[in-house]
Design brief:
mainly alpha; 6 helices; Four Helix Bundle (Hemerythrin (Met), subunit A); 0% strand; 78% helix; single chain; 165 residues
Length: 165
């Protein structure tokens, strides 16, 4: 019974965060709504006995991605987008949204669910595997991310110096 209450609570958090993202006129409030929705998804992962996915959801999406979105929004010039009209694509967006919703609902009703295989994952065992057997691919991925970050900084510096001249 308590898991059902927490499930509905997580669903309310996800829906209210999603509505905040869609309906908010302030872009920062929309980013915080996204963070709330992602925290609700992490709650669903916890209810599904997937604490590692919940942790990754909060750290990567709730923390890093939302912060990157906020920085990107704060660094863009909003005057460039004031002249854009966002009302002419509403019918297409509504049709695409309804088709996507129909596909998700149909997949949810016609997919068999195996409840017997629900068991938790030992996080200490997963961490041991990640940092022993998978240590080299983990470090290679971190180096690739560092190279991409440095490339982004170099590209921004070149465009900033060409704008000043």
């Amino acid at each position: 019974m308590t898991s059902l209450v927490f499930f509905y609570l997580a669903c309310v958090v996800i829906l209210s965060g999603g509505l905040t993202v869609v309906l908010s006129r302030n872009i920062i409030y929309a980013a915080f709504g996204l963070m709330a929705a992602l925290a609700g998804v992490a709650g669903l992962f916890i209810l599904s006995f997937a604490p590692f996915l919940a942790l990754v959801q909060i750290l990567i999406y709730g923390g890093a991605i939302v912060i990157v979105i906020i920085f990107a929004l704060m660094l863009t010039k909003l005057e460039d987008f004031r002249t854009l009209s966002d009302h002419k694509h509403w019918p297409i967006a509504l049709i695409a949204s309804l088709l996507t919703l129909g596909t998700i609902v149909a997949a949810a009703f016609y997919t068999p669910v195996n409840l017997a295989s629900r068991r938790g994952v030992d996080l200490s065992k997963m961490a041991h595997e990640l940092f022993s057997q998978w240590a080299i691919p983990f470090e290679i991925a971190s180096l690739l991310l560092l190279i991409a970050l440095m490339g982004g900084v170099i590209m921004v510096r070149k465009t900033d110096s060409s704008d000043d001249k």
